[in-house]
């Protein structure tokens, strides 16, 4: 039987309290609750990870250590792999950090993973924690932190804020092995955005091509991620997110991702052991969620936090402050009333967060779902003239340029026949020339 792992809150400070975007998805066997919670579950064929692959998984990207932190949740110690493939940016086609076609294929595999493991919250958390270490006051890469794949190394995984994220790496490692020309930095952000979209959230305008850091010596120091229970929640949120270059609106919009996931007291010190919303899973049951449908991305988080009527729903200090702080409250009230506005602002904030600190190759990034380039409108001489003669391409371009210069177009023909007018003008000029010559 595949191992079931319930995930800790989005981040845990040294005192084991969950941070700002604390979500604790459980994944494992599908239950009847999955159809109720997950909008995309019934829409796609599922593909589960085999128990053999789960049990034999090896963290090739982690360095072994004589001590195993409690943050690894009783997992086995994994041997190190000193290959350049693991400690450097993965092999990729020339000019690109990641291969666009492999990115697209990896996205499909992530969708299958989401529909079989219901791991949306932890994948969102993984992307956030890799990019959330960014410091806008540091120019050098990778010292500035951000979305650079450093979270794959043990030294950073052992940060208290990242408790449980080793399980997200365990889920994604088979996909990484399959698509070697995709960087870890891209894979983490691809998984995060896809999880939001597959849970019913907005389409996020992502770009890819992030370069990976080469080794654990380039991981950021501990303490850059936010806490959930600081003495002054509003000030703490601003200290952390202003350091990333984010605004009050973006802080509130990103808080809305708490609509996904649940918190477990044995890991975070927050939440109940079980509620009526979490006792049946899907995945390993238990924990306390922020919303009743904790695998559905919508604006119910803001509604539930505002009302605070359901004792089975979690409200952290950093959640409550969104309706207590005057500046935050403007946006929280708006999102509680208008899901479309929330989706729009969240998509923009998520995309911005996912790019923080990243170094792109190519510099402009790779867009997987950009607008298709429409083919040039075909020139049809019949639309401009009643003549049947086929014109050369050069003549078509000339005539079209002249025609459009005087206000004509295929959809808005001129009142009179353009070619006939030209012929009349030429004839008049010929007559005048003849008369003047005589």
UniProtKB/TrEMBL annotation:
Chain intervals for the UniProt region annotation (Disordered): 257-289
GO molecular function: heme binding; L-ascorbate peroxidase activity; metal ion binding
Transmembrane segments: 418-437
Cofactor(s) in the UniProt record: heme b
Keywords from the UniProt entry: Calcium, Chloroplast, Heme, Hydrogen peroxide, Iron, Membrane, Metal-binding, Oxidoreductase, Peroxidase, Plastid, Potassium, Transit peptide, Transmembrane, Transmembrane helix
EC class: oxidoreductase
PROSITE patterns: PEROXIDASE_1, PEROXIDASE_4
Enzyme Commission number: 1.11.1.11
GO-annotated biological processes: cellular response to oxidative stress; hydrogen peroxide catabolic process; response to reactive oxygen species
Localization terms from the record: Plastid, Chloroplast
Basic and acidic residues bias spans: 263-279
Claim: Plastid is one of the keywords in the record: yes
Residue ranges occupied by any Plant heme peroxidase family profile domain in the UniProt entry: 123-407
GO CC terms of this entry: chloroplast
Signal peptide: none
Reactions the enzyme catalyzes: L-ascorbate + H2O2 = L-dehydroascorbate + 2 H2O
Physiological role: Plays a key role in hydrogen peroxide removal.
Sequence similarity: Belongs to the peroxidase family. Ascorbate peroxidase subfamily.
Record-given protein name: L-ascorbate peroxidase
Lineage of source species: Eukaryota, Viridiplantae, Streptophyta, Embryophyta, Tracheophyta
